[in-house]
């Protein structure tokens, strides 16, 4: 099966706040991130195509669009640019290194 994704995803499990037009500020928990988007678990339904704003990594607020929903797991596409995109790119690079190092650790049998 060939993936349609352009960028690799990296595991990222952190608490986030999401500002929505329909429900105000919601708490959520991230699942993974790529340079183009992020997935998160939310307890309240947010409509597809709604523009939201992530309070992310404590440094910037990043606008994103709700692209998909599967139960409580949402997929968001980043629509920010400039400083926001640089924070995302830097975070993905750091996670790539950290997760690569974890994969390289070999556990001896037995």
Explain this structure to me?
By secondary structure, this protein is α+β, with helices and mostly antiparallel strands. It has a single domain (10-104), classed as predicted glycosyltransferase like domains (Thrombin, subunit H, Beta Barrel). 20% of the residues lie in helices and 43% in strands. It has one helix spanning 83-104; strands spanning 10-11, 15-20, 24-33, 37-42, 51-56, 60-70, 73-78. It has a 6-stranded antiparallel β-barrel. A hairpin with a 3-residue loop joins strand 3 (24-33) and strand 4 (37-42). The termini are far apart. The model has no long low-confidence stretch (mean pLDDT 84).
Q: How many strand units?
A: 7
Mean pLDDT: 84
Q: At the first level of CATH, what is the class?
A: Mainly Beta
Q: Quick one: CATH superfamily?
A: predicted glycosyltransferase like domains
Number of domains: 1
In helices, the fraction of residues equals: 10-25%
From the spread of the alpha carbons, the general shape counts as globular
Q: What is the subunit organization of this protein?
A: single chain
List key phrases describing it:
110 residues; alpha+beta; Thrombin, subunit H; 6-stranded antiparallel β-barrel; 1 helix; 43% strand; globular
Compact summary:
With 110 residues, the protein is an alpha+beta fold.
